[in-house]
Amino acid sequence: MLPDLLIALTMLSNFSLVATSRVAKAIQFAVLQGVLLGLMPLAMGLGRHFHIVLLAVAAVTVKGWLIPFLFRRALKQVQIKREVDPTVGYTVSLMLCALGTGLSLLLAHNLPLKPGTEYVLMVPASLATLFTGFLLLVSRRKALMQVVGYLVLENGIYLFGLLLVEDMPALVEAGILLDLFVGIFVMGIVINHIRVAFDSTDTRHLAELKD
Amino acid sequence: MAWLLILVPLLAAALAFAVSSPALRAWILPAVGVLHLGILLLALAGWRALPATAWFGLDALGGWVLLVISLLFCICAFYAPAYLALRPDRDHRVLSTCLLGFLGLASLLAQARHPGIAWVAMETTTLVTAPLIYFNQNRRSLEATWKYLVIGSVGIALALLGTLFIAYAAHMGGLEEPLRYTRLVENASLLSRPWLRAGFVLTLVGYGTKMGLAPLHTWKPDAYGETPGLVGALLAGGVTSCAFLALLRIYGVVAAAGEGAFARELLVAFGMLSMAWALVFMIRQSDIKRMLAYSSVEHMGILVFGIGIGGLAAKFALFHLAANALVKSVLFLSAGNIHRSYASKQLPFVTGALRRTPVSGWLFFLAFLAITGMPPFAPFLSEFSIASGALGTGHLASGAAFLVLLGGIFLAMSETVVKVVFGTPSAQRVRTPYKDAPATTAPLIVALGLALVLGIWLPRPLQAMLDQAGASVDGVPSIGREARR
Question: Are the beta carbons of A182 and B127 separated by less than 8 Å?
Answer without folding.
Answer: yes
